[in-house]
Amino acid sequence: MTMTYALVEREGPLTIITINRPEAHNALNAAAHRELEAIFDDFAKDDSQWVAIITGAGEKAFCAGHDLKQQASGGGLETPPKGFAGLTARFDLTKPVIAAVNGVAMGGGFEIALACDLIVAHERALFALPEVKVGLAALAGGLQRLPAQIGLKQAMGMLLTGRRVSATEGHALGFVNEVTQDDVLALAREWAAQIIECSPLSVRATKQSVMLSRTLSVAEAMAAQWQFSAMEAMLASEDAVEGPLAFAQKRKPEWKGK
Questions:
Q1: Where do the domains of the chain lie?
Q2: Cα separation of 163 and 133, whole Å?
């Protein structure tokens, strides 16, 4: 597949995805959505890739959301089956994804970030779900994820007004993990490196268990987690033997991801 709207780099087990429409503030049209869905499909099935970072080209925007010019010209609001950018409805992805927010993250752009497991942001970044201001609603997970991540009242304050939130306020609210004045992609790489030091199967089991447990009671979740697919894979893996053995031998583990 020829990449027109996104760039993909692989650094060992790390995949870096850059939305590449800076002239449109990295807003996504139908073709860009399909391209990103294919990229995340490849990441999900590639056993050699353990962590992904998604960012935007340039310094102004991470992603400005839907290409409203496309909608205004009759192009509609088409998104692929796996959601906005092929990510927001990808509920079976157990590999971690980090959002490196380099500029404005508006509407669907903010929803991409909310669908990631970690968000790091440059101090110039701005976040908003402004759909109510243009006669729409945050239908790519914003209505659900934002209240879950920052609480009902704070989320309603953003959702009902469409107000913009700075990276610093986002950190205070709890949806941003870390803010930097420097290179946000370098910061994301640092977080990714810490994850990559850990067992990839343990990371996937942890993510899947957390996500599938959110609608269960603690007792139900603790009982159910033994049957979660990523947990079963971890417990039956060579890495589950390698980790304790490396600890006992006082050496760095050599993860195989199997």
A1: 6-196, 200-248
A2: 10
Burial class from Cβ neighbours inside 10 Å (0-12, 13-18, 19+) for residue 208 reads buried
Selected catalytic residue, list 11, 78, 131, 178: 131
| Residue range 122-145, pLDDT digits in tens | 999 999 999 999 899 999 999 999
| β-bridge partners, 119 | 99
Q: Using 50, 70 and 90 to split pLDDT, how confident is the model at 1? A: low
As a whole number, mean pLDDT of residues 10-36 equals 95
Question: For residues 202 and 234, is the Cβ–Cβ distance under 8 A?
Answer: yes
| Structure tokens belonging to residue 52 | 């992904």
Count CB atoms within 10 A of the CB of residue 229. Answer: 13
At residue 14, the pLDDT reads: 98
Which H helix or E strand runs over 6?
A: strand 6-11
Q: Which CATH class is domain 6-196?
A: alpha beta
Catalytic residue among 111, 178, 242, 254: 111
Alpha-carbon gap, residue 32 to 4, rounded angstroms: 8
Query: In this structure, what token pair is assigned to residue 187?
Result: 């910061």
- Active-site residue flag, 131: yes
Q: Where are the beta strands (DSSP E) in the chain?
A: 6-11, 14-19, 51-56, 61-63, 97-101, 104-106, 118-122, 126-128, 165-166, 178-180
**Residue at token pair 């979740």:** 221
> Which residues sit opposite 201 in a β-bridge?
none
- Residue 35 known to be catalytic: no
* 3-class SS of residue 17: strand
